[in-house]
Amino acid sequence: MALKQYLSQKLDQRLSPQQIQLMKLLQVPTMELDARIKQEIEENPALEEGKEVDEEDYSNEEEYDSSDENSDERDFEISDYLDDDSPSYKTSANNSSADDEEKAIPLSSGKSFQERLKEQLHLRNLTDDQYNIAENLIGNLDDAGYLERDLEAIVDDLAFSQNIITTEEELEKLLKVIQDLEPAGVGARNLQECLLIQINKRQDGDITAFTAKKILENHFQEFTKKHYSKIQKKLEISDEDLKDAIEEIIRLNPKPGGSLKASSKSLQHVTPDFMITEQDGKLELTLNGRNAPELKVSKGYQNMLRSYADGAKQTKSDKEAMTFVKSKLESAKWFIDAIKQRQNTLFTTMKAIMNYQYDYFLTGDETELKPMILKDIAEIVDLDISTISRVANSKYVQTPYGTISLKYFFSESLSTDSGEEVSTREVKKILMDAIEAETKKKPLTDEKLATLLKEKGYNIARRTVAKYREQLNIPVARLRKEL
Question: pTM for this one?
């Protein structure tokens, strides 16, 4: 097949660099915006922090005469990138003290989960090889404190990586040493072993702990499935004794490593992007100050461009320097405009959400939430759905009822008997209230919950109830049963 050349016309829609930059800034949360601005300032020396000075119109033909011998060689207007010569102290003021500046609060974190266990290991009478093996076992524990790897695989790892020859029996002995460390239950290979380690440390002749141990040893499957009648029949104990033993087991920690790991986690505070306050029955929306940082174009770069523009003749190097300065000034102006547009888009979108869910923001009642999807807000603010999605992503609003993610306010609709459209949030709230008020000895099944909702006027199927219950992380009726 021969190659051919031909001409054709076609329409092609492409995003400009400014649009791409704006889209990226829109989806950046407030916590990351500071880092993004600092990165831009490092990459572009023409951009600085501070209050932007108002620009004057430099359309004076006498200052930049078109008869200049170099005017034909310029493909841009120098005046577009210049500021006035007024001193900065005449056009800016700072009435805030240093005490008013927002300062970060340093957070300290504790030692890691493995480090605390190794500290306790130093107090044990172990040889160097035994300590290295035990340290390796601690390194194989997961975040919850469990050892999920087979001992045989660890034996092979020690032989190949550390040239330590050992046996599974030796590992088993050292694992018992680790299981004797605090917190109780660490180093277990499954949940049953974890609970048994903890219950064994609570014995001391306590009949309740003894009964709990027998349940964990011999009837663990029945316990996990809450078949209490079978356990009671096999152990021949009373309702009261069974209840006390079950309460003893429930008090045990199924994730012993989590208590140590929680203190070593790096804490991350949610910084709200918006604040909604109520005054005299009216809502007021404000944007977090970090979303509107003060940026300006560098005065030094503007003066540099002016000096090049005032030159009678320009060499090749001068023209290259002028082009470089021009590109940096353009990039700085684009970034400042993108930050301002981001601020306006965020405020406009949140204003529309606040007005749409006005009753909820006034009362804090989840049943007042209206069904709302991205398309509803996009039509109000006349923006694309993808833009609304970027605004709602990773953004939070501070309300009188707590700091809430914007995604929380978006939900599908559900029809009632009267034909009214209600939010699925409202149905989930009623579902949760019904489960909290149920008799725990005989919890409500999904079928009964569906019937209850239908009696309240909500047309909902049993499988939909099961879906909402799973979304709320609520177990099935059998697992909610209590004595």
Answer: 0.54
